[in-house]
Amino acid sequence: MCGIVGYLGPQDPKKIIIEGLKKLEYRGYDSAGVAVLHNGKTKRIRAEGKLKNLEDKLINEDFNGNLGIGHTRWATHGAAVEKNAHPHQVGEISIVHNGIIENYLDIKKNLLARGAKITSDTDSELVAHLINEEIQQTQNLLLAVQRTLGKLMGAFSVLVMWEKSPQEMIAFKDGPPLIVGINSKNKTKEFFVVSDIQAALNYTKDFVYLEDREVVHIADNEINYYSSLGAPLKKQVVTVDWNPEQIEKMGFKHFMLKEIYEQPRAVAAAMRPHINTETHEVNLQNIGFAKPTDEVFKSIERVIFIACGTSFYAASVAQYLLEQVGGLPVQVDIASEFRYRKPIITKNTLVITISQSGETADTLAAIRLAKEKGALTLSITNVQRSSIDREAHGHLYMNSGTEVGVASTKAFTSTLTLVNLLALQIAKVRGSLNPDQEQTFVKNLLAVPSQIELVLAYDKYFSVAAKKLNEFKGFLYLGRGVSYPIALEGALKLKELAYMHAEGYAAGEMKHGPLALIDKDMAIVVVAPDDELIEKTISNLQEAKARGGKIISIGTGENAALKSMSEYYLSIPKTNWMTNPIISVVPLQLMAYHLADNLGYDVDQPRNLAKSVTVE
Length: 616
Prior knowledge:
Radius of gyration: 26 Å
Oligomer: single chain
CATH architecture of the largest domain: 4-Layer Sandwich
CATH superfamily of the largest domain: Aminohydrolase, N-terminal nucleophile (Ntn) domain
């Protein structure tokens, strides 16, 4: 969703806020704005469109205050036009907001009845009105915010400044992430309030994570935390050891291409804490459960995976792995649907959530519901101490590093690595995997990073092929078994990046409808590495070929049958069926990337999408 940056300190707020917003532009790029104190007044500059438009407006603007707030927006309420851009200012109050105010219609009705002049179409401006009303009565920003918080329903993070108080900044949240950065090394402290630590990493590594319905009050070089009812809180300062250079492009044309190339390293980093490379054993221990991990895995009778988008497809791969190797019944749910069908969670159920950001609103709500129903929970995230990570009983980390491209790549393959390890550990504990089998699987997994390197060598192949692929009217992605979710992920990547019609189907379902789509203008992308279903997949493919479909196939080695049927054939290295998905998804990522780039689209920031969906 939207990106928030606030700064209070001795440096130029404009510089720091713009730098921070650049780090957060992946969260939203419909509009952007800043509000900074200048000569004791709030000076607000906003611009429609991408952040560059705001930067252009700010070139000749100077500010002499040391307090400012900024925002990059992904539109929810109100069109992506300048009047709806943040910050919103009402009287002496300015705010930036991420999220949705669910009771905004009631608030708006009441404000209009009291004579308020509402100038935007957003729910966000209403928060500024409420705080402004309270400040007129109290002349106390903390009290005004606390009174306003009680009037709001929904999922929101809000940062507030008051031009009468140039040494004061207040923020509060209930849902979307909000993090406080503190640099106390200098005599005059610096304070940052951001929706993602990337925005402040150049200036500090010390952060405090706000929990729901908490308020942070920064004033006169001091910082205090309160509950929504005003009770003082003690908060832990967490030192984050991230390198800001991780988010630079390192010479690649796009962040996404850089992140595709980082996958060998990301996969290795995901498995490193959980594998003994000398004995080739899985050691998935110390992941946060109150009981020993093996004891937990022995006791569970059922697993439910909950996720959205690309993470949902990773969970779908996990279903095949855990059922076939671990011998456990597995259910996979879309997070946005999970709560609304009143799920039945039986005793000894392990609920596993997957979210790269750890802030996905639907997934966060689902894990909270699972806990209410008594389930043990395990999170797979890329961001430690994110909201979902903090909610879960157990924790696994992708360790893939910062992923800036909106369309997930390395976080997906890191997740596939973790669910391989999870399946192996569960199988070992439950007696369905002997030591020789374990070592074989682990050796295959350890080889995956170098095998991905081999696939990446085909990058130029896709760059050339993209010039012809854009002539197709649509793409049908096919796979069987564990390759079926990879076909779904491939179709999603093409939709996200190239804005082309693409559907993923189980190859065995061809006769049940999809055959009607096939003609010479339809591309058939088949994920068909060697496994027990390869012959059936080829048989399904022949049906498509006979009806004029143009086939793009991904197979193991020199598969003569696949090659002879295909307009384009890509060979991937031989591995086992469990690790095939990690390797076979890489050419699908490259294909979507190059096709979108060839069409001239913004690969890192596809239209209408944002990296972290922190509202329902």
